[in-house]
Each structure stands twice: as structure tokens, then as C-alpha cells.
Amino acid sequence: MTDTSLNTGPEKTEAEKTSAPMPTAIVQKRQSPWRAPLVFLAMAVAIAAVGFGQSWSVALAIVNMSLVSALMAMGLNLQWGYAGLFNAGVMAFTALGGLAAVVVSHPPVWEALNAGGRGLTLSAVIVVAIIATTAFVAANLKGKLRSFTIFVIVVAGYIILRPVFGEAVSAVEAVDPARTGFIGGLGLPIMASWIVGGIFAAAVAWLIGKVALGLRSDYLAIATLGISEIVIAVLKNEDWLARGVKNVTGLKRPVPYEIDLQQTPWFIDLVSRFHADTLATAADAAARESMLRQLLIEASSAFVKIAYAGLFTVVLLIILALCVRALNSPWGRMMRAIRDNEEAAAAMGKDIKARHLQIFVLGSAIIGIAGAMMTTLDGQFTPGTYNPLRFTFLVWVMVIVGGSGNNLGAVIGGFLIWFIWVEAEPAGRFIVEMLSANMDPETPLYRHLQDIAAPFRLFVMGLVLLIVMRFSPRGILPEKVRHS
Amino acid sequence: MYLIGESMTGGYGGADILKDCTVGVEKGEIAVIVGPNGAGKSTAMKAMLGMLQLRLGRVVLDGKDITKLTPQARVAEGIAFVPQTNNVFTSMSVEENLEMGAYLRRDDIRATMEQVYTLFPILKEKRRQPAGELSGGQRQQVAVGRALMTRPTVLMLDEPTAGVSPIVMDELFDRILEVRDTGLAILMVEQNARQALNIADRGYVLVGGENWRTGTGHELLANPEVRKSFLGG
Amino acid sequence: MPETIDILNALTLMTNFVFVPALAYGSQLALGALGVTLVFGILRFANFAHGDLMAFGTTMTILLTWALQAQGITFGVLPTALLALVPAIIVTAVAAILIDKSVFSFYRKRKAAPVVLVIASVGVMFMLSAIVRFIMGTEDRRFTDGERFVVRALDFKKWSGLDEGLAIQTTQAITVVVTLVVVTALFIFLNRTRTGKAMRAYSDNEDLALLSGINPDRIVMITWIIAAVLATIAGTLYGLDKSFKPFTYLQLLLPIFASAIVGGIGQPIGAVVGGYIIAFSEVMLTYAYKKFGTYLLPDDLAPSGLVQFLGTDYKFAISFIILVVVLLIRPTGIFKGKVL
Question: How much of chain A exceeds pLDDT 70, in percent?
Fold first, then answer.
């Protein structure tokens, strides 16, 4: 402690001086064991209300994206809540997961591979050669000579690479550009991409972590924000890889298609039994037939959504179980010790950089898995739609509002914030309609008001974040502080 | 006494660091607080400056109770403080450091600045240089000069000689004596107890946050117990 | 050897497509980075809402521009937006102070970790971007009027007899002139005035500044006013030069941060230099040098490809790579700023 710092307020404690994520309350109220179940029950009620009030299709869609969001929030919570790492690049890992979905599940485009495969392979070889020589030089030379040699190698390598790569890319992109124009994927079941997405994200996170994790929080945030923009720029512009902004649509599904279900006897049987009472009111066979067709369409759509929900829930529960176990293990305790007091942990011989890298990679992998799941759910990969507000900062709101450092908090944060994100727009529209009810629809103000419903959700998000930070800084389900 | 902290008791929220500790200084005097590490020397000084809430006791300046005042308000009342570390604006020139010292003053500060330059001639020479580029001893001079710019009646110094060479230390003490002769009350915390007590009109030996021995500088230097305990015989 | 006329053509080409645009863009980044760096120096957190503060200030300028135009008031050959700038700055400054009072001051008083303020700034970013979209919608808007060019390409060709034209848009000239004036004024303020010096003192050593009787609340308020001035001017100049679209202002955050950090965060001079470094790197590395080479090289050596280092879509990558290199080699930036 320095003796001379002028401190007009109460003396800061050691823990506050280091990077404690949130201002921790000094007096900790003991938490009711019913808090978490009650919060989840309330969430279920809210979703059910949407089901009854709006439609079950919307409610199920919210549930599915909430599950994905919860997973993203858990990944970020691992990094921020457990380790205090400010990752502002969530978007990049989500998109890498999405890329994995394309790479794994799309059938290979043989024509494109024949046209440019050799060029791309050669490019890859050149890149590896550049990296290898650079690494060799970095290890064996010193000082200015080293910097200069590395510079020469990189520039020369780039000059060699550029035409080879450029030619291969144009060859690939020339292949039926309206439909493909990219190399395609492996044609494997799309669920495999959930794991591959995690691996992609982990690999990129490892690279980023190697470079950026030595930096303090603000720099790490800016660095990861920058990297995420670069990843998106690559995905948008490298059409040979995943068609860029032309999007890859019609990805394979891990669940049945509605149209197939509607033809399947057991499903028809199930629906007619479930709706036996309604169908009995039909006047004749023809009316019954058309009624049944309508019910089948609704039921098949719901069935598909429920099937997704089931798959996602399984993944969420597995990862949740792993995270909870990790948090309670000696490893988790060490992580929190590092977060709360880095200096003391370093003095005790903990390798902080290695631990941070580990947790950064793990958290990013979870986000990657969630990203692959999201693309699977959408059935398409659309790099143009990734923006940091929706895919990075929204996940941040989920973690902070849910309660950083608490896995269940991250889950409820994912549900609640996604719910608000979706429902804020109709709420905004409702408010606008109230405001403009007596207005002449021809006036510019009326037309302008119709446009503000969409940004309303941004406003609500900011407000929710600031209110929670101010009045409940530890979130809905705060981190449980264990006293040893 | 001109400035006195009477029966000061308190700490940073937890256990009391100061226990019924009394420290004071008269105008035109140097008072020195010495003692082993962790004796609460700096804490006592900070309490008098208002950086520490006292649980018991009071601080009186020229007959006026200032216990409730904030550090900033005490600065305005005429107490100047030189912290031990980070006591200059490193990115600003020497002259700007002095100007910032006089920030609260609205009158002409040139005369005071000339006095500081007379006291520390080297500063005049280096007045355009950033304070961060000066040597340790010169920085201490800037720090003291900055504090003098408010034309204080009390100057508090927290270990002014920490980390400077013995020659520089002697010079610094000489300067401090000169400052005293202008009629200021000087209160100092010092690690170099022997040298500090040598120039002290009044000495306080603190142990465990309490007054252990009090007397003039020379009395304490002559006291066998004080010598034995921490002047090294 | 290329002929003199070819060299002149090549130089004109570079001036027209690289130097002038980069100078204008660099000025805009410099103003943005100055705001970020001042807020960092005084309040000690990276303000993620700065891009949206720029968008907010620009929105105010555009609204006032429309109001003036509706009254039939224009600024002759200059864009009307310049007239609207002053009241827009006042509105934005009031908004910035209100944001500080309602959000940031709470955490500052409790001496919360800087990262908490960063997260709070994310909340502010959301709300500001919503307000901007409420008012302006999401589409691209151009709001410049008056004379479009200071120098026209055709006139230049006629005057010089070269094949290459040089065009300087009014907005580009205004950007450079306004930046020069604003930066000079800011530096005089910081280095010559009592309040400016107090701001530097507070940024340098908060504790000692308090001991010297500097009032922190006043310093913070002045910081927000200056940040609002800089953000509004930077945003308006960028919008005049290119166009106004809320989302691009969020994306500007990255090159702005890069500029501030490369120059040395907390160092005003660094922010300015950093802005130009980032802008010139972006423009120079994404420019296709084919025609430039054609002028200077003998015909048989003339480049066949575009001779472009990176596609324009990767300009983010450039500011980012410069950022990473600086962080690794010299974390304090060029002008020895603070290490976060």
C-alpha cells in the first residue's frame, strides 16, 4: 500500500483495486435457495404468456434462440465471470461456428475444387512456409536483423502468394457463381459442425490469446473488437470460402423437414389423435381433410421447433454441467483467485498467462458451438448480418444482467435478454400506435414514427443494462461467494 | 501549538492504527515523526491532513478545529503536503508544476515563484523541462516548491529523503531549515531518524501507533533508550 | 527514364486519390481520437460510446441544417451544416454532461474499476445509437450543400495540361481547415490556460491535482464539453465528406481507438499523429497502384494486375494490425501515453 495516495473516500480494499469485475457489495446477503427456481419459473410463465397471447410459434422460436443465447452467455461468462477477461469479439466466434456449419454440412463442389483446389492447396503450403521460416528466423536471429528479415520474408511471401491465391480464387468463384462459386464443404451431418465450430473458435481464440491476453482489460476489449471485425470482413469477402455476402442457404437439418412430416403416417396419426375432438366437429370428410391438413402444417412446424429445442437443451445441459463442475473444482477456485487478486496469485506461483489463455480458448469454443447451432437453426449462413451490437454487446448484456460469475445467471440472462430483444419490437410498435392513433397517416411524422419501432429494442437494451448495473450490479443470480 | 493533532485514534475501517496519538508543531519549528516500520508515522500525518477519518481526537490549526474538513479544505486553510512518491506532475514543466501548486490563488504568483527559485536555484535553470526528466533530488525540490506555492503556514513532508543519496539528503535538509527560517511550521515523517532529529526542534517517536517518547531533537538523540531501539546504539 | 510529364501525372494521381482523401479522413480520425484520448486521460476509461456520441452530434447538426434550409438560410458556397455546428455542439455538450451525471459519475464516486465504466459506456452506446436511429432512421443521408468543389478535375487538367485531374472537394478542404483550427485551439487551451493546465495536471496525477485544490467535478465537466465539441465536429465533417449512416459511426470506433492508442493514449498530440498514421496506412495499402506504375515504369514492365496490397473491404484489418504491432513493440504508443 502506498502511504501517500490521497484518498478522500473510504480506503479501497485490495480486491477492489485489482480488476474485480463488478463493484461487489460489502455486506453479502445470504441468498434464498428458491431464488434461481423462482426466476426460471417466472421466465417460463413469460414465454407461456407469449404462447397464449401472441402465438406458440413465436414462443418456441424465442425458446430456441434463448437456448443458443444462453450458451453464448455461458461462454462469455467463463471468460468474464471466472477470469475477468474482457472479450469484445463474441461476434467473431459466433460467425466461425456458422462457418463450421457450412464447411461441415454443405456437399463439396467438385467442379470448383477441380478448378481451384490445387491453387488453394499451393497457397496454403506457401502460407505454412512463410510462418515456418518466420518462426525459424524469430528463434535464431536477434535485434534489428531479425525484424528486417521477418519483414522481408513476409513481404516476399505475400508477393509470391498473391497471384497464386488470386488465380485459384477467381477460378473457384467463376464456377456457377449464381448457385455456388465456392468450394463447398465435406457433406457430413450438420450436427458434427457443432463440435467443429467449437474447434474453429478455439483455434482462432488461441491465436488471439497468444497476442492479446497480456494486455489489460481495455486494450483486450479493443483488440478483440478489432479481430472480430476482421473475421467478419474475411467471411464477407472471401467468396470462395462460404460465398461471402451471397450467403449459403438451404443447409441440411438435424431434424425432419415439415413437408416430410406432413406425409409421414405416424405423424398424421399422432396429430389426428391429439385433435380428435376438433376433427369430430367436421361436417363431412372433405371438411375434415382440409381441417387436418391445416392442423398438420401447424403441428409439423411446432414439432420441428420442439425437436431443435430438445437437441439444444441437451447440449446446454451438458455444457452447463461441465461449467458448474469446473467452477467448483480447484481449477475454478484458482481462476477466481487470479481474477480477484492477480498479484497475489502470481506471487503464489500461478502461471496467470497460461490460465487466462486456457479459459479464453474454452469460453470461445462454447461460443463457437453456439454459433454453429444458430446457423443450423437458421438453415443458412449470412455473414452480412453479423454486427457487434447484436452479436457481441447483446451477449455482454446477457452476462451482466444474468449475473457474472454464475452459470445459471448466464442462462437466465440469455433467456431474459433474448426475450426482451424479441418482444421490444412489438412493444415499440404498440407504443408507436398509441402515439400515432389520432394522426393523419399522410403526415411525414406519422410515417417516421412507424420506423422507430425497430431501434426501440436498442434503447431498451441499454436501459436494462444501465439499470441492472446501477441497482443490482451483481445481476439477477449473483455469483455465490464461498468462504473458505 | 500552531497545528496539533490531539489524542488521534482511528484507522482505515478495520482496527485502529493510531491509538491516542498526539503530534504538534509550532510556527518556525521543525517537528519530526520517527519510529520503526508500521508505527503509524505516515498515518498520523495523513490524519492531520484529513485523509483518514478519526474515531476519537481532534486536529486544531491556529486555534480552529479542522477535524471535520476535507483535505482540500485544509489545503485552503494553509496546510501544504508533499507526498512521498508521485509528488510531481511528471509530464508538465517545472514552472507548470509550480503554477499548479498555486492553483487556488487568484493573485500574482510571480513573487512566490521567485522565492522558490531563490530557494532552489536549479529549478529556475530547468523551469522549461518536464519534471519527469529531473533527477530524484531535483524532483523532491520541485515537490517542495510546488507545496510552497500556496504560501502555506504549515508544510508537511512525507519522507522527503526516501531514495535520494546522502549528499542530496544533506542539501535537502539545509533547504528545509531555510524554509523554517521564513516562519513556517514544518512537520516531517522520516526514516533517516538520526539526521532528521539533528535538525528537529521537536521529535515524536511513535511505536505501534502510540507516542513512545517525545522531546526536542537533541534530547531524543541523547536518550539511551531511543538510541538503543532504533538509532543503532 | 520516365518523362517529366509522366512523373507529374503520377504525382497528381497520387495526390488526387491518396493524399487528399487520406488527409481528410486522417483529420476526422484525429478529432475523434482526441475526444477518446481526453476522456481516457481524465476519466480513465475507454469510452465505447464515443462513436455514437459522434453520430448524435451529427444528427443534431443535420436537424439544425434542415431547419435552417427550411428558413431559406444557407451559407453561400459553404455547407449550411457549418452554421448549424455551433448550436449542435451546445446540444451535444448538454447531452454528454447529462449522460455523465446520470451514468458515469455514480461509478466514479464509488471508485469502481475502469472496466465497469467501460461496460456502462456500452449501455450508453446502445441508448445513444437507438436515439440516433429514432431521429434519423438507418439509411444513408447526404446533407452537404453549397459549392461541391474547390478545385475541379477538368479545370485542373486545362490549367496544367496534364492527363490526370486533381479534384478537391469543398468538404475535404473544410475538414482540413477546421481540424487545423480546432486542434490549434485545443493545444493553446491545454498548454496556455489555467484550466487547460489543470486538466493536464489532473490527467497526469489525480491525487496531487486534488492536493493542489483542483476541483475534479469541474475538470470532468469541461472534459465532457470538449469531448462533445470534438465528437460533433468530427462526426459532422465525416458525414459531410462521405455520408451519414448510424452504423458506420459505430464502425469508426475501431480506427479511432487505434489512432489514440498508436499515438499514445492520454496524449493529445499522439491522437492527432495516430489519426493520420492510420488514415494514410488505410488509404495507401488499399489503393490500386496499377495506373501509377503505368506512368512511371517502361511499357514492357507495366503491371498487369491492380497492384493493390489489400482489398478496400479489409481496411479495418489495417488499423488493427498497426494497433497490434504498436501494442507489442511499444505499448505506450509513439508519444509515451499511459499503459492501460
Answer: 93
